[in-house]
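Hey,
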Amino acid sequence: MTAKSRARAASADAAAEPVDSVPAERVAGAGLVGQDLTPSEYDGYLRGTAKYLADLVEPGDLHAAFVRSVVASARIVSVDASEAAGMEGVVFVASGAQLAADGLPMRSDSARVDPTFAVFHQWFAPTLHFPAVAVDEVHYVGEPVAIVIATDRYLAEDAAEAVVVDYDERAPVIDALDALLPDSPLVYPELGSNIAASMRYGKGDVAAAQATPGAVTVRREYEVGRQSAVPMEGRGVLARPDGAGGLDVFSSTQFPFILTQTLAQTLACDPASVRVQVPSVGGAFGQKTTAYGEDLAVAFVARQLGRPVAWVEDRYENLTTATQSRDQRHVIELTVDRQGRILALDDEFVVNYGAWSTIRSGVIANTAIHLMGAYKIPAIAVRATGVFSNKAPTAQYRGAGRPEAAYALERVLDAAAREIGVSRRKIREINLLGPDDLPYHQGIPYRDGEEIVFDGRDYVAVARAAWELLDPDELETLRYAAPPGCYLGAGLATFIEATGRGPEPEYVRVRLEPDGTIAVQTAGGPSGQGHQTTLAQIAADAALVDFAGVRVTTGSAVGLPHAGPTAASRTAVIAGSAVHVAVGELVAKVTGLLADHFGAPTVAHTRSGFEAGGETVSWARAAQLCHDAAAGAPIEVVTGWAPPRATWTMGAHVAVVEVDARTGKVRVLRYGVAEESGPAINGRIVNGQVRGGVAQGIGSALLEESGYDASGQPMATSLADYRVPEAAEVPTVRIAHLLEPSKLNPLGIKGVGESGVVAVPAAVASAVEDALAQFHISPARTPLSADHLLKELVRAGVRS
């Protein structure tokens, strides 16, 4: 290794590891934003003292278990719970039909979108009504059919097994393309078809571009497999009646505000009487944004019985009944000239939504829009269709449509490069948006109805920074050390990501406590992202206080007019900006009260507190004076903030893999990520988010798949069937950040929560293709499992 190469590798390794972090409780002084504080909440996670949902269940609380459908599509003939009702410890049993008769209402999913978006993209989505617990028919294996309440979970499960359900089974539809056939069974006959959503958009003239003399059009088909989020902690809900008609609900949800509203609608009560609180959460990744039927049924029955009821999901339920994601097929055409410049892109894709999806607009729209990538594409046409099927329901999973778009676009770019004989790196560099192009107005509305404007600086520089994370001497050493029958390859993929999307505001409450502490309440339900620390860093800087002077409470929407989920790389941008603004308003309020008290024309806000009437007033004394002046009223502000439009993050991933042609196994040996991002609130957390995303992306690329057989039975029902990456399968991730602050929020920040996962499947596939270039094997699906790749190697004659 040369001296220059060693220096490059050392720099990359330094970028991969965060600088020494400082325990948050020891930090004092100015400028907390940007410091790599140890997240204060991590201590509880690591020591086992954090309280998760199951830890909140008390002796004497009742437990729920659900009777679930064993077939994918059927009419329910009868539900016989007579034996179960008489079993030991059983308190209550009800079928979906009985719950409906008792007043549990239907759920509605209208898939509403912004009107501007709807018109431009020719959006179509029928309104779907379906019950929380199946009443007349079932649409997927695992759908709840009845609920059993008993004195403990084991007795509830035993009783659930004793419930006899008679089904009139029907032919299911499993494959998305089959669902579009004229003679396909209909998942919901009342809708008249299996189309769950559709949209299309375009700009420029694709046909004319394809007819350009000398132009080359490559056409490919790609499949992105179905996945589960597989959080360490599954779903769960504990509903505790308060004896006065209200309900305290503890949930592992990412979206306490919408769960509050949905429960209030379900229970026909004032939302103020439903108090949803989120304890520590062991992972979510989008799976916990949905208000599930189990949540509604448990709360409904708890209120009926007047007793606390808990339901904690097991792993089988999580893998088979919680929402899944991905499951797309693309037919994509890319037209380039002989130098590799993109002339046009045409893509038609289908999304398999399963039995239902409460965010039908999210995934399909994200995929369609992010197909533009970070490139100059003068002509584009995209047609997208989502279908219902008899698989499990779907929702967003980390990336939410973006990894699918990146996979299709980046793979077809590799195909075009190979077709015209240019390098994969060159075809990207000549098409990526550079400093002369940015900011780049697409003339197309995003999901918030606002025009898409890529607000970056230099995407070419980002791609080059990513490539430089790979040391050529190191690659040569790895290639030389590869065992017989193993082949080394390197791949590159870029991505674009909308973050911090509105238009809905995020409200926060900021209160001055009597002891001078600043208390911040935000509704997002974090699941390990360190929100209590990052939001405290923002609040402390705005108030000019030390970290210890701020206390952040997350996961409670009580008293807030509106709040969004912890999802879509939005919390730092939107909630963080709301906290910044709200603390500023609190400072102004305190300043005004102090001016009145001291009769001072001006009051200065300083790091020591306030300067008023010729004396220094600490926050503790200011709190005393303000509370006296307010006569017991809280000194607080409730403020919302919304962005004018989404801010865009761009990045590039590089991967080095080793392919064992004897077994089809792929090992990821090196990985690098370069991103054009805003200033980091906490670099330790930012890099952790990127690394976690890469780990999940490797699972998407090589291992994870929620498969189904022809009858609709799930094939991955345990972690023995559903393979997730182990620690030894995830290499050290080298990270480079190129700073470009956003001008769309007061902190200049951009979201980072999902960017680590978006380009991984495409980068890994590119590396595998490079490794096997001599055999002309070009991966076209995820996951690229050993079994699948081995078949490709046999087909190519590499082995018999």
